[in-house]
């Protein structure tokens, strides 16, 4: 079944609005913005925003989901472009850091303080940790890594990923998120090398 041109335009417009909304939120956070502020900044009506979500809270959650969906696509495209477990883990963690570079400290603080959006973030962190665990298991099976407990290594990665995303690693080390993810990749893959 093909969509009509009107449906295509509607979908394209919704995607464009979500992209603009996400750019705004990533740069400035969302807690201090009202729906009126958001509508003015996006140059649309509040009723247009209500076509995206039923409330500001729902809009924040939808934008957060949109962010992680885009980040996941970016990360997986980077992983798919390389061969070997070490390169894939390095590409994965580096791409996660790059995706998070777009998020301001204000956005991350607002994300942490708003339970529905924080839940989206925590779910995605758990998925990312599982992905790292799977990549480690693939490397062990291929003989590229020594026989390590993949779940433990995945949990180690997840703990560090949360620390990076919450700003604790930056505060303790001065490393920005992308550099912290590169260090995590180096330590993780070096520590499990065959």
From TrEMBL:
Claim: DNA-binding is one of the keywords in the record: yes
Protein name: TetR family transcriptional regulator
Organism: Mycolicibacterium chitae (Mycobacterium chitae)
Transmembrane segments: none
Domain (HTH tetR-type): residue spans on this chain: 11-71
Keywords: DNA-binding, Transcription, Transcription regulation
Coiled-coil ranges from the UniProt annotation: none
DNA-binding interval(s): 34-53
Single GO MF annotation: transcription cis-regulatory region binding
Entries under PROSITE patterns matching the protein: HTH_TETR_2
Lineage per the UniProt record: Bacteria, Bacillati, Actinomycetota, Actinomycetes, Mycobacteriales
